[in-house]
Every structure is written in C-alpha cells, then in structure tokens.
Amino acid sequence: MSATRAANLEASSEALDKFVTRVDAVLRALESSAGNPTKVGAQTIRSASLTAGTESVFPEAHGLYKQYNRVHAELTSLSKSLHLQIEAIGIAVQGAHRGFDNLEEEQRRRFWAIQAQIRETEDVKSDKRHTNGSQTGAGY
Fold this sequence. Notes:
Blueprint: H1 3-9, H2 13-32, H3 37-42, H4 59-98, H5 105-132
Helix pairs in contact: 2-4, 4-5
C-alpha cells in the first residue's frame, strides 16, 4: 500500500470521535422513532379486522391479511437488523479508535453477540429462500 493511501486510511481520533457521536445520534433517533423494532413489531392487525367470513367468502381480504403479515414480519426483521448494525458500528468505531482489546469486556461480548445474531437471522432467511424456491440472483 502506498504512503498516500495509508495516510488517507488513517483515522484521526477527532474524526473517529465525531463519527461515534453521529452513529450514537442515529441510534438514539431510531430508538425514539416509529422505526424502533418494538414499535414496528406492535403494529399488527387481526384477520377479523378485514372480514368476519371464512376465506371462501372473501378470499381477497384473507390474501391481503396474509400479505400484510408477511410484509410486517419482514419490516420488523429489517428494523431489528438495522438497529443491531448501527449498534455494532458504534462499538467497532470505538474499537478502531482505542483498539478492540482496550474496549470493556462487555462491549466486546456485545459486539460478538450482535454479529452472531445477525448471522443467525441471515441464515434463517437464506434457508427460507431455498426452501420456498424463491431465491433470486441478488440474494433477496
């Protein structure tokens, strides 16, 4: 690597502190917004809200209910993942600034727990795509 590239990659403590502050602000904003995983997860509907009949009476209402639940589950998962990713970025930036070994033990544990949780979620999604046969080239 050239000296110029190395200098461009070197992060000053001021820049890292500023970045940590911005990541923390984004995390606080997410936690207080409607995108908070708990708030997203609480926005459910019951099938009876759309129709009181059986599926054969009004199949479109039941189809809408099923799609709403599918989209709701995906949005809840995405919200949780975003929350975890932002938290992990904050810890990683602190580790880059002070050295990962110099972080508190709890922060290091939390970082690896987040990584494991995200990996597990992605594995479950991948298994569902393979099981349902709806795998696309982009992995979505």
